[in-house]
Design brief:
The complex is a heterodimer of chains A (114) and B (114). The mean pLDDT of chain A is 91. In chain A, strand 5 and strand 6 form a beta hairpin. By secondary structure, chain A is an all-beta fold. In chain A, the strands form 2 sheets. In chain A, strands 2, 4, 5, 6, 9, 10 and 11 form a 7-stranded mixed sheet that branches. A 4-stranded antiparallel sheet of chain A has the order 1-3-8-7, with no helix packed on it. Helices cover 0% and strands 50% of the residues of chain A. About 4% of the residues of chain B have low confidence. The termini of chain B are far apart. With 114 residues, chain B is mainly β. The chains are: A mainly beta (114), B mainly beta (114). At the A-B interface, strand 4, strand 5 and strand 10 of A face strand 4, strand 5 and strand 10 of B.
């Protein structure tokens, strides 16, 4: 696609429910990143994929968070048993690969846990 | 982990004035990038400066990098109301064998008054 696409753009869920957030990167981009941004804050790194493998999962806050990427393309971030503190905007970005290049961001998925 | 720290946290200026934002970081880097985020939107890449560069220009943007002080500055000249946004610096963790994630600061919120 022309840009990084994320869905849903907004998600309201009840505490304890599971949610899935999807990211469709720019075609041909081998690297994919998930970040989390709380209201008025900076970006918190969650996980990074190179192809389908995740060499750096260091930012995942707890074992309730998981992510996968299939076919070197679409990625899904899953949050199990959501908590109120999970409320944030989840941003996905892709790049051609390697840390020397710029990241292209999607518009984010805003998650609200009631 | 927080690598870049922007200063000031917020900046309000009049249209036509210059805006300067600073970023400090802690570890050695391979490059430093600046991004812009309009309210409620994704981030957009502005400029990348490599560790062996001291200054870079792009249109009304001027970025400097001082690796001895582990700091960078972003100057926006002749500001416009449309420059109102949050600005983030991002660094890679070059001292750790080329980690492929960007670590973002908390950003500077710039308001340009017409």
């Amino acid at each position: 696609g022309a840009g990084v696409s994320q869905s849903p753009s907004n998600k309201v869920t009840e505490k304890g429910k599971d949610v899935e957030l999807r990211c469709d990167p720019i075609s041909g981009h081998t690297a994919l990143y998930w970040y989390r941004q709380s209201l008025g804050q900076g970006l918190e790194f969650l996980i990074y994929f190179q192809g389908n493998s995740a060499p750096d999962k260091s930012g995942l806050p707890s074992d309730r968070f998981s992510a996968e990427r299939t076919g070197g393309s679409v990625s899904t971030l899953t949050i199990q048993r959501t908590q109120q503190e999970d409320s944030a905007v989840y941003l996905c970005a892709s790049s051609l690969g390697g840390w020397t290049g710029e990241l292209f961001f999607g518009e984010g998925s805003r998650l609200t846990v009631l | 982990s927080q690598q870049g720290e922007e200063d000031p946290q917020a900046l309000s200026i009049q249209e036509g004035e210059n805006a300067t934002m600073n970023c400090s970081y802690k570890t050695s880097i391979n490059n430093l990038q600046w991004y812009r985020q309009n309210s409620g939107r994704g981030l957009v890449h502005l400029i990348l400066i490599r560790s062996n560069e001291r200054e870079k220009h792009s249109g009304r943007l001027r970025v400097t990098l001082d690796t001895s002080k582990k700091s960078s500055s972003l100057l926006i000249t002749a500001s416009r109301a449309a420059d109102t946004a949050s600005y983030f610096c991002a660094t890679d963790e070059g001292g750790r064998g080329g980690s492929e994630k960007l670590v973002f600061g908390k950003g500077t919120k710039l308001t340009v008054n017409p």
